[in-house]
Amino acid sequence: MDMKKRIHLELRNRTPSDVKELVLDNCRSNEGKIEGLTDQFEELEFLSTINVGLTTVAHLPKLNKLKKLELSDNRISGGLEVLAEKCPNLTHLNLSGNKIKDLSTIGPLKELGTLKSLDLFNCEVTNLNEYRDNVFKLLPQLTYLDGYDKDDKEAPDSDAEVYAEGLDDDEEDEDDVDEEEYDDDTAPGDEEEEEGEEDEDENEEEEEEDLSGEEEEDEDLNDKEVDDEDEEEEERGLKRKRELDEEGEEDEDD
Fold first, then answer.
1. DSSP secondary-structure letter at 246?
2. Which residues lie closer than 8 Å to 227 by C-beta, 6 or more apart?
3. % helix / strand / coil in the chain, to the nearest 5?
4. What gap in Å lies between CA 157 and CA 138, rounded to an integer?
5. Which of 64, 91, 232, 239 stands 20 to 30 A from 119 (CA)?
6. Are the C-beta atoms of residues 150 and 81 closer than 8 Å to each other?
7. How far is CA 53 from CA 70, 86, 101, 147, in A?
8. DSSP sequence for 199-241
9. Is the pTM of this model over 0.85?
10. Non-local CB neighbours of 27 within 8 Å, separated by 6+ positions
């Protein structure tokens, strides 16, 4: 997959100005240069282009808010002077596994006054005598080189990035918002239980109504049966009276 297509996929229907983190690792860069990345990514703070075949960073757009740039496992051998102009607030730069052979190549990085961490693992420059001391002298603003400071103390949490800390803060803020949303009256589980209880109450009421309706129907049937019996008894009484009257008339005739 080429870099332009990968950037399009990574956007996920967002606009470039909404993106703070962009990972393009292992895609393909045509002619060894960055493609598809524009200065519209004005909020970008973290960019990773590991193993994409880069030979130059000359086509990097202006990214004023970029703090961390991952360029490891490419074929970059120079041209780093553009970084001070394109990424003036860069704090972490990883150039491990590139074609950097001498100190003059990284000399332009001294213009990056905010640069605190630099990684050059697996670059030929690391084989030079007094490599570490010379890099710290060349770039006095550095705190960590290849994960260690001047006193060979390891960076906390493997060179904990300011960018990562910023992301953690954002996640904590989101968690706080979520807790506030769920903490209004009851937890989601409690709401489900209450809804379940309400449904049970409604079912019980419906059952009671059905039972009461059946009782009323039974009462109506009983009343109807009583009325029918009364009518039959009244008819029998009238019939008996007619028979007696007829007998009386016969006696008079005799």
1. H
2. none
3. 50, 10, 40
4. 26
5. 64
6. no
7. 13, 20, 18, 24
8. HHHHHHHHHHHHHHHHHHHHHHHHHHHHHHHHHHHHHHHHHHH
9. no
10. 1, 2, 3, 5, 6, 52
Contact status, residue 87 vs residue 63, Cβ threshold 8 Å: yes
Q: Which two tokens stand for residue 160?
A: 């904990």
Per-residue pLDDT for 166 more than 80?
no
> Distance between CA atoms of 159 and 173, rounded to whole angstroms?
24
- Our measurement of the distance from residue 173's CA atom to the centroid of its chain's CA atoms, rounded to an integer in Å, reads 13
> Residue 40, Cα to own-chain centre: how many angstroms?
23
> Who's near 43: CB < 8 A, 6+ residues apart?
17, 18, 19, 20, 65
Average pLDDT over residues 66-81: 97
Report pLDDT digits (tens) over 203-245.
566 555 555 555 555 555 555 555 666 677 777 777 777 777 7
Which tokens belong to 164?
Answer: 């990562």
CA angle 24, 30, 87 (to 5 degrees): 55
Q: How many CB atoms lie within 10 A of CB 164?
A: 15
